[in-house]
C-alpha cells in the first residue's frame, strides 16, 4: 500500500507502473484484510495485522510524498550570442546599424 500511495501522490510513472504490476500479481492478498477470509480458506490468518500494515503503508505513503523520486526538471538552454542575427533590428539606432562589420575573405590558390 505504501508503494501505491507514494506513486499516486508523486505522479512518478515508473513507480506507478511498478505499483500496478504488484497489484496485478499480488492482488489476491487484499482479501487478507477482511475478517471472514480466514474462515473461508480454513486457516487462521491475522486480518488485524494485514489491516494495520495496509493502514500504515497508506499513512507513510502520504507522510513521505515529498521524498523519493520526483518528476524530473527540464532545463532549456538559453542561447546568449553576442552577435545579432537581424541587421535591421528595430531597437538599434541608425548609427548602430551603419556600424555593421563586414568581413571579406581573400583566398589564395595552392601552388
Which of globular, elongated, flat, extended, rod-shaped describes the shape? rod-shaped
Q: How are helices and strands ordered from N to C?
A: HHHHH
| Percent of residues in helices | 40-55%
Tell me the β content: under 5%
Distance between the termini: 80 Å
Count of alpha and pi helical runs: 5
Rg over alpha carbons:
33 Å
Task: Describe the sheet with the most strands.
Answer: none
Residue windows where pLDDT falls under 50 for at least 5 positions = none
Structural class: mainly alpha
Short description:
The chain is mainly alpha-helical. It has 5 helices and no strands.
Walkthrough of the structure:
- The chain has a domain at 2-63.
- The longest helix is centred in the middle third of the chain and has 17 residues, at 47-63.
- With 111 residues, the protein is an all-alpha fold.
- It is rod-shaped, with a radius of gyration of 33 Å.
- It has five helices and no strands.
- It starts with a helix and ends in a 13-residue tail after the last helix.
Amino acid at each position: 500500500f505504501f508503494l501505491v500511495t507514494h506513486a499516486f501522490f508523486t505522479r512518478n510513472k515508473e513507480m506507478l507502473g511498478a505499483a500496478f504490476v504488484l497489484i496485478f500479481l499480488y492482488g489476491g492478498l487484499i482479501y487478507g484484510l477482511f475478517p471472514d477470509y480466514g474462515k473461508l480458506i480454513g486457516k487462521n490468518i491475522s486480518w488485524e495485522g494485514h489491516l494495520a500494515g495496509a493502514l500504515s503503508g497508506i499513512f507513510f505513503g502520504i507522510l513521505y510524498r515529498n521524498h523519493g523520486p520526483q518528476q524530473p526538471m527540464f532545463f532549456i538552454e538559453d542561447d546568449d550570442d553576442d552577435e545579432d542575427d537581424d541587421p535591421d533590428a528595430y531597437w538599434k539606432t541608425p548609427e548602430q546599424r551603419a556600424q555593421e562589420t563586414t568581413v571579406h575573405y581573400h583566398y589564395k590558390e595552392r601552388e
